[in-house]
């Protein structure tokens, strides 16, 4: 066996992206991976790649002995090599303007192959068509490729900007435990059996929620953490079993203060990581306004049309359904979308949008074209009398050439259906610039959600969310009407963050627990430690958590949040690279005093 190269005595002089024409004539020692080898019948070109870039190395038979040349010819794809040589300017015609190092090449005079490589299961030197499963299986190879590597670099830069910004604002980064009591985010916990106390389990945190609130009681008035969160959910669209949040909590604040910190932080990220200015403050709208105008609590403000309430005007026609909605207003509505320039949409397209509306619970989607100041086709015949058509067109804010789409029925259903149709049409028909980030705060969400399965109220966010001051009076008498100091940050139709001002008063907390049907005993069992801490001087506090993975994909690009995570899992929460989850040794089970049910 030959000795391993004493690399430390032969350090790299440059990295893969360093060399420029001004280095011509100097010596270079590079180490990296064989990205591509081209044998030009004699002269051999090697593109040597490392994290920083690619440098062209040339092996010339007239300058090298046969043995070195032969050695060079044995370099295979992804071999790890050390090359020494002289930096040369490339002849003008041979320059590669696509590479930062494209003006030079290194003429090799020494070569060591530091390691060989099996043939990669997919090529690393081109935009591959390899399946994602294969790329996940060999994640370390996919990470060598430019798109994923850039995403990881961006993520690092972003985390660093976040840390710097928040630290400058007097936030302390404090780690909270991974082995915890169950957390109240509402998803299923991952559980970890205790060996030292058989029969007992830890949960992995769904978020640091309880601990960050206790840190407020402890007097750390500005906390943050780039925290791993784990939720054992069925992996719906683009979720990960473990994901990362930028988690914040602050004492003695209102939601304005929380918004201000998040806006400042994102402004810093834009400037430092994207070299872009971000316009702050972000617009705000209440949940009610977001639903009324966009039928969504995460509206995409790039789509240039919104929902109009046309309940009264639509009842001016002869359609029973619209009259019914007006008779039952405001619990029922007729909403309209005037889709600009889409009067020419085909029946096929309109049918597809109707199918979408129905999927969202609407009974149908009425339509008509706006032409010559009147209605044409679809429901036009129901608006033939008097100025019924003109009134509807005006109420919908429509102009000639628009397509009018209407849904009516119970408020939430009709608006959500129109909201979903709006998003679909936006994606199909509008040119939405993915780099045009339209942030919006949506606040004052309802505090409770009716849980059909349990036939009881449940917390819309989590049970520590403070109702609006002015709704405290009807907290118990009319829970459905209570809105909360609960807020989301969204951009371009994507939810990016959620947070709230918390309940710090025992009496309010007890009422909320009562409304959702949690007995004092159950509460004590689950979060007794938090409630107890509140008895020792809990300051008013609030916070928020931003999904880091999603922010990376939004800002940097990518197909899914998997592209922002070095080692992600599949939809079934499997790691294709290491094979987790996997069975454990029966001996370990015995030690944990666990038996598997088969
Ligand atoms: N812990 C919450 C969540 O993960 C965020 C918060 O309220 O700060 O959604």
Overall domain count: 3
How many helix segments?
A: 16
- Find the structural class using helix and strand composition: alpha+beta
Tell me the overall shape.
globular
- What CATH first level of the largest domain would be assigned? Alpha Beta
**Counted beta strands:** 22
Helix content: 25-40%
Can you walk through the features of this model?
The chain folds into 3 domains: 112 residues, Nucleic acid-binding proteins (OB fold (Dihydrolipoamide Acetyltransferase, E2P), Beta Barrel), CATH 2.40.50.140; 212 residues, BirA Bifunctional Protein, domain 2 (2-Layer Sandwich), CATH 3.30.930.10; 129 residues, Gyrase A, domain 2. The chain contains 16 helices and 22 strands. The strands form 5 sheets. An 8-stranded mixed beta sheet has the order 6-9-10-22-21-20-17-11, sandwiched between helices. It is globular. Bound molecules: aspartic acid. Aspartic acid binds next to strand 21 and strand 22.
